[in-house]
Amino acid sequence: MELLNQLFVNPFVDMVAAPDFLLQVLWEGLVSGVLYALIALGFVLIFRSSRIFNFAQGIMVVFAALTLVGLYAMGIPAWISVVLTLGVMLMLAVTIERVVLRPLVGQPDIILFMATIGITLFLIGFGELIFGGENKQMITSELGIPTGAFELNPFGGFLLLEQKDITAVIGAVSLVIGLLLFLNKTRMGRAVRALGDDHQAALSVGISLRTIWVLVWFIAGVIALVTGVVWGARAGVSFALEVIAYKALPVLMLGGLESITGAIIGGLAIGILEKLFEIYWGQPIMGGNTETWFAFVLALIVLLFRPQGLFGEKIIERV
Amino acid sequence: MLFRTAGQFKTSYLKDQTLFPVRQDAILLGIILAFAWVIFPLTASEFTFQTLLIPVLVYSLAALGLNILTGYAGQLSLGTGAFMGVGAYACYKMITIFPEMNLLVAVLMSGLFSAFIGVLFGLPSLRIKGFYLAIATLAAQFFLVWLFEKWAWLYNYNASGAIQVPHVEMLGTPVAGPQAASMTQYYFVLVVVTLMTILAINLTRGTQGRIWKATRDMDIAAELIGINLLKSKLTAFAVSSYIVGVSGALFVFLWRGAAEPNLFDIPISFRILFIAIIGGLGSIMGNYMGAILIVALPVVLKTLPETFGIPISSATVEHLNVMVVGALIVFFLIIEPHGLARLWTLIREKFIIWPFPH
Question: What is the C-alpha to C-alpha distance for residues A48 and B257, in angstroms, rounded to an integer?
Answer without folding.
Answer: 46
